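lol so apparently i was supposed to do this last week
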Amino acid sequence: MSYLMTRKDFLRSLGIGLSGLFCAAQGLGFSFSARSKAKSVKGHIFKNDAPRKPWKWSIEGFYYASDGKDVQCQICPNRCVLSPGDRSVCRSKVNIGGKLYSLAYGNPCAVHVDPIEKKPLYHFYPNTPVFSIATTGCNFRCLNCQNWEISQKRPEDVRFAELFPAEVVSGALKTGCPSIAYTYSEAITYYEYMYDTAKLARKKGIRNVLVSNGYINEMPLLELAEYLDGANINLKSFDDQIYQCLNGGRLLPVLNTFKTLHKVGVWFEMTTLVVPTYIEDPEMIKEMCRWILKELGPDYPLHFLRFFPQYKLTRLPPTPVTTLERFRSIALKEGIHYVYIGNVPGHPGCHTYCHHCGKILIERQGYFLKQYNIESGHCKFCHTPIPGRWGASENKSISKLPPRYGGNISMESNSFPVLHAPDPLSKG
Ligand SMILES: [Zn+2]
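anyway here it is w/ zinc ion bound
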């Protein structure tokens, strides 16, 4: 999938990329507020930070342009231009000798079996286990990142297991997981590893789930979507300024990702982490819901998650539950059928209510289901079709994680072990 272009094409592609973004930001006409004075937290390229040679867990990048010396990664809207020896914003891609390499192929730093509800996916084969992997790296710089110990690290800085795509698929089969999730850090940064694994998984009858910020270009997304069954994509706000100063990204490419997934028929759910002082304007939530309804329709679930002080935002309090309730009411009133409150265990907003008759379809206690009233994808009471992906495997219990998959590594823990990798990548 990689291809070469002339230096002229290469420079032209840069021009188009930059002016396109500029016009997009202008065209959307976002309201400027005090936030517009806040600094963008966009990540930068790491000069001369690449290893001298590719290592065992390297593969040539799938989408990039090269003039024989400099390369431009074209997986995500960052479109990093790397001179020989440079490392991308996401820390996973490097230019070695005029070629783009991923350093994250077969070396996950997290491997878990999770309930699918944890992603969160509430309308996607409920109560099934999902084999979940991540490598290090992220193309964003969210001030509130809950997985910063792996998202803001280089692949060679964090302890890893060796699992090439075939081993991930056999791991899922051995642990009785009908799905694999590419999750925790940012799956787009290990696109090549995810793509090859997903393709193989599909062949073996295993489903693929992307959990992501949605910051990906259309071509690689379309290519990947052929093998995707479900996704949870963050819609971190509905304001380009907030995207820049809270996340280090832009809004428009994320909106395009939703439109693309909708167009090709991949099931997805949307997640908005409600960060106090950043995500607090009810008008913005209204505007966001109206966009969702117009472009995607009322059926994709929307999750409002409670924020807890994290990473660079420890000064902020947790989201007041009343804010989450207010946002949920707004979204329901606007017409979105399934709106959830997350990270507030036991809250009535965690359950699924039939959008037609209002009865409880799924009652949740944490990640466990207490009631399940969906039959062949329909409400048991009024027989209305319920949007989502439902199946025969709904009542399978969560598998126990075999110790060799590192079940002791907790993504929630602040004491995530960081080890330095041995020689292959040390410079010099
Ligand atoms: Zn009903």
